[in-house]
Write a structure and sequence with these properties.
This protein starts with a strand and ends with a helix. The chain has three domains: 241 residues, no CATH class; 84 residues, Transcriptional regulatory protein pf0864 domain like (Alpha-Beta Plaits); 61 residues, no CATH class. The chain has a four-stranded mixed sheet. It has a four-stranded antiparallel sheet with strand order 14-15-13-16, covered by helices on one side. It has a three-stranded antiparallel sheet with strand order 17-18-19. By secondary structure, the protein is an alpha+beta fold. The chain has eleven helices and 19 strands. The longest helix is centred in the N-terminal third of the chain and has 22 residues. Helix 2 crosses helix 5 and helix 4 packs across helix 7.
Length: 399
Amino acid sequence: MTIHIHLDLVGGLSGDMFISAILDAFPELGGDLEKIIEQAGFPDLVALDSEPFNDGVLTGTRFSVSSKEREGHHHRHYSEIRETLTNSGLDATTKSGALAMFHEIAVVEAAIHGKEVDAVAFHEVGAWDSIADIVLASHLIAALNATWSISTIPAGSGFVETAHGRLPVPAPATARLLEGFALSDDGIEGERVTPTGALIIKYLKPAARRPDAVVLKGTGYGFGTKTFPGISNTVRVSVFEANEQDLPWQEDTIVRLSFELDDQTPEEIAEAVSRMRALDGVIDVTEQIVSGKKGRQPTSLTLLVTPECADTVTTQCFNLTTTLGVRREPVRRAILPREEVVVYVRERQYRVKVAKRPSGYTAKVEMDDLMAEQLSLKEQHEIRQEAEALAIKQVEQAG
């Protein structure tokens, strides 16, 4: 069975709130947390606490990590944290996730402050309690091995006091981490998503909506320490299950950009399409001739892009073409499991993409590999059949 988890950010999200909600939905995972902190190498620097909580409206769990380091000593370099985690006794998956999250925030901080990544020093996420939040979040994510989706994210408003002074909400690092995600304004002021909460969202890469044909198995509520007027400061975890045989594909959300051009030459459009295909985050670009106003036949362009690159690609659509408007739509995508394998036919190497369809495996040899040789059509056909059959057999045997 495949687990899918949907996050409803009612009050917002912090590291503590994420862990609280997971523990409320999966209380059996709480017993390992002290051990994870020991494996991370700083058991004497933090204290963990988890207890039932009722805010007068909802009941759930409130988890907290308190730091034992001296007050105000939160200045810690990325290189120091990376070395601590690299040399820790954490399992490979938890360690990899925690290192990936710290690298992500280091890249963001480096861009904001104009520094090299290894020279970045953390403040808010440099305290041991925040480091523990990230390590524990990585452990829980690895333990669940789930797919994820998320509601719209409350942007918050006003200002927050940081080590760099008074900054607007969302704080600069939080805003960078949340690029590509849908934010909403519910009129409630305050910091709704902390840098650690935004980092977890960025790492999860959740879809914008849960998949269809899944069964709700349970919920959990994780509470933060702040209070907001009229709402519970909680994040809700909804746990779904799907039978892989009933849902033989993976799902994610991409962004579809589309627009028409009726005042550029075919040569200019071809060059623009070529350059757009090369942009980071672009999955595909298609073009077709359509009927337009005044009897014109404009070219319609459609780009499929990853959410985090949608703004950058949109900017380039305006830079590379004469369009004055770009339609932007989030699109759910079903993706068949597939992998590329290498096989040898007649002492030559061929790459083959093998897809697992509901009806069985299909394969397609890489055409560049076939066309690289001076082969007749008959030879190409024979090699294609043999290579694809070998690739399917190889994948089936691997399980």
